[in-house]
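Final report, closing paragraph on structural work. Over the funding period we assembled a curated collection of sequence-structure pairs, and we close with a single example.
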Amino acid sequence: MPFIDTTNSTHLYILIGAIAFVLILIILIILIIVKKRKKSKLDSQNEYAENIIKALGGIDNIDDIKLSRRRLNAIVSDLNLLRPKDLRNLKLGAVITKNNVKMLVKDNPKVVYKYINKKRKEGK
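Its predicted structure, as stored:
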């Protein structure tokens, strides 16, 4: 005796429905997991950008910021507020000349740049 009687169309429809339900459930679970990972990654990138802001002496100390490939160029108003040790701890290849701080951001520089610009606009 077979597991499911394929000659009876009702059993066949129930089997197809159950398979479709399980597949949809698996897809939904995968989508939820991916969404949570993206959110946690964005949160960590925002935290990273916040640490860069602190290392540059705060959002009020940043006069201008530009992105050139993977390099952030920040013009700061007061060099005394800079925290070079924090820049080193963030593993940014930073070069400080006069009031210009050039930093090599390896992970998602566009996200960091957009976050800092957003914060600058909120601060004004």
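The helical segments are 9-55, 84-89, 109-123. The CA atoms of residues 69 and 88 lie 20 Å apart. We thank the funder for supporting this effort.
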